[in-house]
Amino acid sequence: MLNKKYTERDLSEYQFLVTGGAGFIGSNLVEYLIKQNAGKVRVIDNLSTGKLHNIDEYTSLSNFEFIEGDISNLETCQEAVKEIDYVSHQAALGSVPRSMEDPINTNNSNVTGFLNMLVAARDEYSVKKMVYAASSSTYGDSEELPKVEKNIGKPLSPYAVTKYVNELYADVFSKVYDFNSVGLRYFNVFGPRQDPKGPYAAVIPIFMDAAIKKETPTINGDGGITRDFTFVSNVVQANIKALLNTDDLEQHEVVNIACNEQITLSELWDIISDLAEVSIEANHGPERPGDVRHSLADITKAENLLGYNPTVHVKEGLQKTYSYYDKLIATKNLG
Question: What global pTM score does this model have?
Fold first, then answer.
């Protein structure tokens, strides 16, 4: 799916910066840009959650550059954006539970780091646009379904606070400095390179790992929690279209990036266990603090503003992801 063109632009004419480019979403975006012959792809990542093996195959290429650095340092951000045309800002400390345990570092990366990138991009003459990873966690305690961009509730976690602050800063920069950006509110992204290990791993790689190893998974809650799971190639599409197809944008915009599909965690485990050809009943644990119970995106704005069209829906995405993890776990190459 990463061979598909999402813009008519010739990418060889432009230089791109991907922050967090050694991470899950960032490395998939890097792969797309390299395959589409981007003039230059520069990655900045502090490798706190990103993995060098995600980008190893590109390090010898003349149009690829890696900076090991932290966006919490303004000078590092300023160095990273030099002579860059388009910035895709994916760097962040994700995970609601992590933010509950460590709100200070979450804020340092997600708020201070984001503000540093905004300032650096605003001040670099060559930068035409910045697109950044926003989050569906911004909807907070709003029970409205589907989620529409203009209607949000109160945040339920420190992580949600940081992602909402990103939107506020970007909006102010648009009004005060005429620096316009696009925030992509991701809904539960999954796919190849998402780490199944660690205390803050997401549910799909955890389930994939359990199914392939024929182990019993634990579902947080009664299994009725719903999510709008979004395959990573749809997110790559959204980033490319937001960067390159919105030159006439005259203000900051935020759009939902999802599939407008709802699935329960119990249904998710049933699909994954079928893919693995196992019959294992899941255990059930308590719901996690800070989690919303139901999530479903209205993607009308993304369709109209970006020309966004999710081409890989949840079942196909799960098949692709299962094949990736099956091969990865078989070779014990989890990094």
Answer: 0.93
